[in-house]
Specification:
Strand order of the largest sheet: 2-1-8-5
Number of strands: 8
Structural class: mainly beta
Strand content: 35-45%
Helix content: under 10%
Number of domains: 1
Number of helices: 1
Length: 128
Amino acid sequence: MSSLSDTVLQCDTLQDNSGAGLPLNLRNKTLFAGATWDGNPVTLHYSHNVSSITDRGVGAFTVNLTNAVADINSMCVTACAVNEGVAGLWVTAGFLRTTTAVGADCYTGAGALQDPTYTAVQIFDLGI
């Protein structure tokens, strides 16, 4: 009878048999890209598979990916926050503009674009 124990797997690269990337059973269960940054000017705090953040104007940003996602039907999760003292619900609209760029637009509850204090974006590549 065998038993399970804690095991550490250390490797530099995990690929499918073709060498094209993660095996299919893992591909849509892992973070493909992500970034966190402070408002204006953009101060990047964390990034994974992100080459840069472009400020497109008040409350509008583009996250430029280092490597392309399989298609624009991938999942994008975004969030933004603002310092205390600014009233209203904040909504972040995250959308893939292309396979190499993700839009993150931050809106007040009244529907106006406004620069947030903090923004986060996570992209999961759902291409199969």
